Structure formats: C-alpha cells, structure tokens
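Why do we care about 3D structure at all? Because function follows from shape, and shape follows, mostly, from sequence. That is the central idea of this module. The next example makes it concrete: a single protein chain, its amino acid sequence, and then its structure expressed as tokens.
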Amino acid sequence: MISTFNNMPAQTRATCMMIVALFMFTVMGICIRLSAAHLPVIEVVFFRNFLAVLILLPLVARVGFESLNMRRPKLFFLRAAINAVGMFCGFTALTLIPLAQMTALSFTTPLFVTIGAVLFLGEVIRARRIAAIGIGFLGTVIILQPGVVDITVGASLALVHALSIAIASLVVKVLTRSDSQHAIVTWMVVMQTPLALVPSLWVWQWPDLSTWGFLWGMALSGTIAHLCFTRACSLVEITALQPLEFIKLPFAVIFAWIIFAEWPGLW
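And the structure:
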C-alpha cells in the first residue's frame, strides 16, 4: 500500500496528506476546547508543545537525530515565534466563539498564503486556484455576514491567528527546500515549549485525569497534522493546497454538533 501511494502523482499524494492534516487539525481544535475548559489557555499551549516533543522523540530517534540539523536556524526561530503568537490567539478564540465560526474565520488564511506565495515565493497563481479560493471565501462571508453581525474579541483573535498561521506556512514552504520534515516539525514544538512555559507558570493548574486525555489527544492529532502538512508542502506549490482548506468546515460542523451541540444557523 505504501509503495502504491508513493507511485501516485505528487499532487494526489499532497492532496491526501492535506486532507488528513485538516481532519487532524479539526480534532486538535476539539481537544483544545475541551482542555481549555479546565486549564488556562496559555497552559494548554504549553502542553500542546511539550507533549508533542515527547511524541516526536521516538520518531526522530528511529530516523536518526541528524535529521534535526538546521540549515536555516533564523527561519526556524522566526517560524516558532510567529506560530506561538498564532497558537495562543487561536486557542483563546476557540474558547470564545463557536467552532464552526472559528473554522470559517480561518478561511482567510488561504487568501493570506496565496498573496504571500505570489509576492515572496514567486509562485504563479492560476485561474482555477483563484476561482476555488474566491468561491470558498464567498462562503465564509455568507457565514460571517460582516456589517450585519458584530465582530467580537474572539473573532478578532481568530483573524490574528489566521494571519499568523499564513505567515508561518510560508516560512514552512521555504524551509522544505533545505531542511527535513522532522526538523521542521520537531524544532517548532521544542522552541515553542519554553515560550509558553514561562507565562503559564503564573497561572499553573495541574490537569485532572480526563483533562490529561484531552491534552494527549491534542498533542497527538496536532503532531500528525503538522507532519502531513509539512510533507504536502514539500510535494507541491503551497498555493495548490489552499483551496483544500475549506474541507475543514464540514469536519468542524459535524464535530461541533456531536460534541458541543452547536448547530449552525441557516447562513
């Protein structure tokens, strides 16, 4: 099965990897919200990164620690700092607004990524990609109804999260040209762990047994998501992946309905 998958066209493999990543990011969002119901958000951010380090260590040991060599360390630090800001804003937003709305707001990320890829990475955006992103964004506008529904603090944080993730994604695309997938994902959580630990000490609470389950689920799903996303970025242009982002919405709606009894309105 693995050999069959590896023989598929790069675009097909990247699409499969991206769909798995988006599903796992949605699962991570569920676990974040459940964890944040019992712990301060910054502490949830810390555990997201610390537990991911523990998950990745056996994988890195298996492939060899030389895979962690950083060829462009400044970009690694830049990505970690930007991603940490986006992570805190996104985690906080998940506690303030419905999951479907958070997901819909995250659909501004493909627009930011596409513009950045054209301006800074020299990628050529084609008509089909423009149409796919445009139609998806139109759906987001219909859901959010700007000018009709007030933009809340949670929605504003979700937009900051979307912009931060877009910038971090562009940095990831650049890093895939010189560094390994394992280095990109592992150094992200290694660097972000102390960034989140220091402020979390001021509000520290020990998780109970059920919260530990949510935290481990968050770390595991997030790690799988980042590995798949990074692999997808290494296979094709990043603008080719952006229309797929809108698959997250049905995932989010179904999970929010089943777990939180949140059913979206007509729009």
